[in-house]
Amino acid sequence: MGYKKTFRYSTGNPIVDEVGTMNFTGNVIPMVWFKTIRYPNGAPHNNAIHILADIVYWYRPKEERDEESGQLIGMKKKFRDDYLQRSYDQMADTFGLSKKQATEAVKALEKMGIIKRIFKTIQVRGQILNNVLFIELIPQRLYEVTFPEEIEDNTLSPPKEIPLSVEGERGILEKREGTTSKVTGLSLKGETNTKNTIENTNKDYLSINQGEADMDQMDTIEIYTQIVKENIDYENLKADMKYQYELLDELVEIIVDVVAVQRKSIRIGGTDYPYELVKGKFLKLDSEHIRYVLDSMEKTTTHIANIKAYLLTTLYNAPNTISNYYSAEVNYYEYGNGRNEV
Question: Could you tell me the residue ranges of all domains in the chain?
Fold first, then answer.
């Protein structure tokens, strides 16, 4: 069977667009993966399943909404390059595995044809980094292991062995156009209110907060923490010894608390704002906004009674006040330090 793919909004990345047609929503792992992603002895490959869930999360397109109306205005990918960059150490730390276990799980996914490992040499701030791991998700194979009942012959073909990557592509990382596979995308969680949809959702999907003990590491807080840290370029901010780690981590915690915990409204500076409005603004904060807030805190001499409320207000207003703040700084150094004196 087949169908015509249509993208109302394109992210510019064909893999992300195709994953978007499958409509993965929420923090769920399809129950069918425990049947289709297995060890040779038939047992579910839990490590591979959890790592795949994380990879799929990052390949899911991110909604862009109007700050005031909350209306959907576009879609974009969550990572910067053409493919998702990961390290075995990072995956091991996230899921409480050894590096060997994480490596074996990734290799298992590659053997099944669900992903492809790509090793590249990249340049970061003038420094050459060799054999950096990127993960390419294969939408067609992802669809097959997620919707085996939708395959034309109604059977799931055995996972084909894919030769493992050795060292992939070398050279400085460059943008390249991806190829688009044919994917027939049905919703993992239908956007209807029918009884049938609800029953299927309950039967076919396992909440990350249920069942397997390891799944709680992929809850909403953890996922949004990853998103926020990527948005603000956390590692580079942390590497800047000018800033205190504790305050930076507190800002991350405040942002995550705002975006991850759904509610009707959020009080900021004594005013209640719609949750979606505040969430949208906080998910658009970047490293410059955080530097601005940290600079402001460093120069504040007034006693602050409620530091959390102060930081919350400062973060919310950062996109609107950052330009005026730095303009005032420039004026001070140009005209306030005696440079205009003869």
Answer: 14-211, 229-335
